[in-house]
Amino acid sequence: MMTFETKVRVQYYETDNMGIVHHSNYIRYFETARTEMFRMSGYSYDDMEKSGIYMPVLSVSADFKTPAVYDEVLVLACRVSKLKGASIEIEYEIRGEESGEVHVRGKSSHGFTTPDLKPVRLKKEAPQLYDIFKGAMDEK
């Protein structure tokens, strides 16, 4: 499966008084990784919404390994791990760029819906988008 990567630097406001990234920010990093993955695939969130496809979050989980700290450059990696008729699952790994140390692994699942949250069968309703996601899964 193809893995997409982008980088961010930990900002001071993302840390707690212990100097480590507050756990809630990792979910934001997941979203950053996912957004960039779509952009790199050639079909951004904006493109999806303009075509009438929304992707609400159904679930998200994170397994914390080691803390990230202020000013550290993080590598946000993600990949499509499952693609079903009306849903997708994405896996994430966040690691330090310099150390290579894994800070967190996680996953999120999303439904494909219309703007009024009715389920959409992606292969039928948006075959171009389905092919992009399927292609990302099939890459080695």
TrEMBL record:
Domain Thioesterase: 18-101
Pfam (any one): 4HBT
Entry-linked PROSITE patterns: 4HBCOA_THIOESTERASE
N-terminal signal peptide: none
UniProt keyword Flavoprotein present: no
Keywords: Hydrolase
Hydrolase among keywords: yes
MF (Gene Ontology): fatty acyl-CoA hydrolase activity
UniProt similarity note: Belongs to the 4-hydroxybenzoyl-CoA thioesterase family.
Alphabetized NCBIfam families for the sequence: YbgC/FadM family acyl-CoA thioesterase (TIGR00051)
Protein name: Acyl-CoA thioesterase
